[in-house]
Amino acid sequence: MSLEPANPLAVDPLLDDPETRIVVCCGSGGVGKTTTAAALGLRAAERGRRVVVLTIDPARRLAQSMGIDSLDNVPRQVPGIEGKGELHAMMLDMKRTFDEIVEAHADPERARAILENPFYQSLSAGFAGTQEYMAMEKLGQLRATDAWDLIVVDTPPSRSALDFLDAPKRLGSFLDGKLIRLLMAPAKVGGRAGMKFLNAGMSMMTGVLGKLLGGQLLRDVQTFVAAMDSMFGGFRTRADATFQLLQAPGTAFLVVAAPERDALREAAYFVERLGAEKMPLAGLVLNRVHSSGAAQLSAEQALAAAENLDGGGIVDQPPGKAGLVGNSAPEAATDRATSSGPGSPADQDGVRADTAAGAEQEKDADEEVPVPVEELTAGLLRLHAERMRLLAREQRTRDRFTARHPEVPVAEVPALPGDVHDLAGLRAIGTYLAEAGTGPADET
Amino acid sequence: MSRLQVVSGKGGTGKTTVAAALALALASRGRRTLLVEVEGRQGIAQVFETEPLPYEERRIAAAPGGGEVYALAIDPELALLDYLQMFYKLGGAGRALKKLGAIDFATTIAPGLRDVLLTGKACEAVRRKDKKGRYAYDHVVMDAPPTGRVTRFLNVNDEVAGLAKVGPIHHQAQAVMGVLKSPQTEVHLVTLLEEMPVQETVDGIAELRGAGLPVGRVAVNMVRPALLGDAALRTALQSPSHTAVAKALSTAGLGGARRGGKAERLVDPLLEQAGEYAERHTLERAQRSVLTGLGLPLHELPLLTEGMDLAGVYELSALLREQGVGATA
Ligand SMILES: Nc1ncnc2c1ncn2[C@@H]1O[C@H](COP(=O)(O)OP(=O)(O)OP(=O)(O)O)[C@@H](O)[C@H]1O
Ligand SMILES: [Mg+2]
């Protein structure tokens, strides 16, 4: 049944437009941003553009399938692209990106002093916001080379989609902050009036921190700060520059969300924030949407029918075991069939010693005991009832979003039962993404 | 179970929810637990549907059987001030430091320092005794950073070793490690039956063990119910007779079984759904077997389909108790 969104997102025109230079996929964690970014990149490339996809923390197999599982922090061309476009992909190495900034802005000796400093090491590996800052930094670098006509960026996993916009400024202000300057050269900042207090504050602070951490720690900080001197001011400026890039007309934001309460709530916040920042929103990608080919049958009807079959009372025909399964059903195993129906211990403790994949079990002739058709059908109906409930829940959460933001175009990607981990899978996702905007609603 | 229960796991798998349920489960039968959070996100307040928590231990919930859960959101800045106060009797100077941004600076630029303060506070609560010499809390449950960061977070000694080689922080780090690497502590990981979280769990356990930190249990969260038994599933996959299923549907009152009839038209879509279910089931089974292979105690918590709320947390805690959590002190 998958309901066509009232306001479908036209993905292909967006990807084909030469004016589109950056597509940012954002959204809260675990909703499929990386997959969406990769699928969009692939589609754009196969439609003839020269594309680079910047992924962040891709699933291992997805990275392997694109040949970017080695972290070298530069784009690699992805083989296997159909058509005359090109797809390049990379996965962000945040520490390496930070190191590169240092190397680019300090002479070799100073750079080495910074890179070896224990403070730098803990900052570059662990400061909250470093990943977001470095993602922005990398985006700025890719854009500056002008080597691609389209850059698709994934954003770091975080609870809040807004972190992507806020974290770089936080790190920027921190690195360019008053205190860092103060540590470095108190006299420069304080001015005459502030001097006395600041100096008193400084010496107290260095005193206390020195005692607390052992004086060597403070010396490390000071060395670090002194070595970074040439870069101060730069961080803030760079963060601001990339921020402006995001407001430029060639940029399109796609908010990715699953049809779940939390994810859509985050998506709504993000849509509002983008509006406030005057950042161009292209639409919402609703990922992992469920549908049913039998939507005419409601959950309640399905459950009632399943109960009828369970009761068996109204079944006036012989149990339809024979001939239920096309390929050889051993007639002898009647009683075993009943003892392994749903509800038997074998089914309920999910953790079984033999956890062989279902496919292998099918081959096991001894196990091939079909259940009675009533039991099978009741099971199918229960499965369907669950599916219909899920559909209803997804529909409710989606309606809530559309009520709040009817202006936002939507593309839907169905929930695929398995993971996406090869180009064929990405291509399929790309097709689903593009289909939303080519439906009848769009042609009228 | 150990006195300090650390709960980690991939982001979004339900660490905070499971930590809350665990704190409730361990507080049953008149015991008292402390639930601490360390990331300044007010996750506990959200789960318990209350106002944001101050940096102060306060009673947040009653457990079945007269127990109590206390909660504490540790603020690293305030913890550092506390700490300075304790050692240096700073008085007003502490406030001046804060105003200057020095505290923020110190806790930000040295994550190791921040971590020592956070874990230090939790370990202090673990060791604290009342006047009669009884432990203030029977258990302390920590909603910890996600798997990718938890080893570094807990392994504070290594973290600050390069930074503070002497002085009180150094001593504090060693005291903390004394608790964290002892049988007094267990680190649990929350996962889903999906590839990425399971892989992260496997990697995380190796990393924790490599650092000498005690690994406790694995909690599989948001488990979906088995709707189709294995035998029925096999039958569904063996291209069962279309007509027989159509007849059964018809018998159940869903319309005509003849070709094009109401019941008949349901057969293909229903079997297709069974196929999708089977595919997911196979993936989940593979992930489950990876988890069983770890040889750690495994808990399973169901997906609460109508969304999580406080009642849901109590429900999960009852399930944890049924699965043996908190049965013995
Ligand atoms: N068993 C469950 N059934 C249904 N929903 C659940 C279940 N467990 C957790 N949730 C929901 O999943 C979401 C994530 O849970 P939670 O906040 O506990 O995860 P977390 O691991 O602490 O996340 P983070 O990494 O952001 O800290 C919440 O909305 C929570 O209510
Ligand atoms: Mg949490």
From TrEMBL, chain A:
A Pfam match = ArsA_ATPase
SUPFAM superfamilies xrefs: P-loop containing nucleoside triphosphate hydrolases
InterPro entries named in the record? ArsA/GET3_ATPase-like (IPR025723), ATPase_ArsA/GET3 (IPR016300), P-loop_NTPase (IPR027417)
Residues covered by region (Disordered): 314-372
Q: Which CDD domains did the record assign?
A: ArsA
Molecular function, one GO term = ATP binding
Q: Taking every annotated instance into account, which residue ranges of this chain make up the domain ArsA/GET3 Anion-transporting ATPase-like? A: 20-290
Question: What PANTHER family does the record point to?
Answer: ANION TRANSPORTER ATPASE-RELATED (PTHR10803:SF26), ARSENICAL PUMP-DRIVING ATPASE ARSENITE-TRANSLOCATING ATPASE (PTHR10803)
Write the protein's name.
Anion-transporting ATPase
- The organism encoding this protein is Streptomyces albidoflavus
From TrEMBL, chain B:
Q: Which SUPFAM superfamilies match?
A: P-loop containing nucleoside triphosphate hydrolases (SSF52540)
Q: Name one GO molecular function term.
A: ATP hydrolysis activity
Q: Which InterPro entries match?
A: ArsA/GET3_ATPase-like, ATPase_ArsA/GET3, P-loop_NTPase
The UniProt record lists the ArsA/GET3 Anion-transporting ATPase-like domain at 5-166
Pfam families assigned to the protein according to its UniProt record, in alphabetical order: ArsA_ATPase (PF02374)
Name this polypeptide is given: ATPase
